[in-house]
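Progress against Task 2.4 (sequence-to-structure conversion) is shown through the following example record, which the project officer requested during the mid-term review.
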Amino acid sequence: MHGSSTRSHIQTLPLLFLLPSNHNSFIFMGALNFQERPLKLYFIPYPASGHMIPLCDIATLFSSRGHHVTIITTPSNAQLIHKSIPSHNLHLHTVPFPSREVGLPDGVENLSAVTELTNSLKVNQAVMMLRQQIQHFVEHHPPDCIVADFLFPWVDEVASKLRVPRLAFNGYSLFAICAMESVKARKDSGNSSIIQGLPHNITLNATPPKTLTRFLEPLLATELKSYGLIVNNFVELDGEEYIEHYERTTGHKAWHLGPVSLIHRTDQEKAERGHKSVVGVDEFLSWLNSKPSNSVLYICFGSLCYFSDKQLYEIASAIDASGYEFIWVVPEKKGKEDESEEEKEKWLPKGFEERNREKGMIVKGWAPQVVILGHYAIGGFLTHCGWNSTVEAVSAGVPMITWPVHDEQFYNEKLITEVRGIGVEVGAWEWSIIGFMERKTLVGRDNIEKAMRRLMDGGVEAENIRQRAQEYGKKARQAVQEGGSSHQNLTALIDDLKRLRDSKPLD
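Structure tokens generated for the chain above:
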């Protein structure tokens, strides 16, 4: 051991004489450690499945490269994270969640655990109350970098005070962010459903709600003060033209590191990514194994979208009329456990379950989406265009039927259908602020069935869409492999963060 230590010392001595005489010794030592000392990184995810799952996956990417990663979260969310991420050397630091202070039951610490506006506001109120505890931990144990959800804008102040870089994460595609920035820049120009100034001409099917725009604009402005933006996507899907547009118009850097759902996992780890599946993964795989290639339609609207019974009835009627085999995930209606079975099932046409006993599966609760989408039997995905669902479908090479509901989903729809040509639109045009708001209009069964047939009928249009989707699936898998665009971006970002750390003067 002594010989090894001496040998290392002799090898680095010449570097000392190359440094100008006015350099301090700490700069020399930093240069010595450039390749050896791991980064110390803190990740602060917002507790909603669509935000937490991908950011924790990104944390896993850094950990898998040998860096010291700590995820700061709350006790209930820590349990979810622990079960759903691969067993890399990740650390979890928990802070108490103030459930009682805001009037929530103990253990309700995630937006995905509530199904009404009042409780969702309480969850967000409690999350914002975590600042003091998180800030105290971070300031007393400073990291080399903080990676935080953009819904925590106060992290900008903490990072600036500590003089460490902050990386922002919002869970959106860069295409959607470019569209939002373009709408903001031209909001006095009239119709905000027509987006000008982008590499493609885009006309949205709805106008962004003013409440949503007012909520997002200050968050996006603070995000632009960060060292850079981490994106759960790959360069080839967002497109070089949108990366160039974003960096040119904002002066901000974006790092594409995804799709993070492609992190190596066992089927069981995939099944428990986020929450535990209500149906065993083996049961899904056994049923799908009995079906022909591209024959099954997967229907899921994410963890925060709840349709009325009337809308569910229209979807069921379209399934009935189309005759396609299906897996349909319907979120559990929390707080309505005391309803009778008859009341719970009033959204199904009479005899639906008997007619479709062999053709389909209805899943009430959480399903292992990555496992399902990755099966050869899945031929299409009826989706709300949430970004996680979108990039998971693209990774699996599965074409989509788009039905946006809230947040940035109407932007994602245009990337899927018009820009990349890997899906068809159902014709939704009512843009809600959140997923479980009552909607004024129904998307009718005829429109739903028509979109299903366009994608699943095996015609020329369907096959062209499917071929493009499969090509993007290959590009997604190549992106995360060694030498791929996302793999190289992660390496470059790590090198950047090391340079920042090692050039920082000692106090």
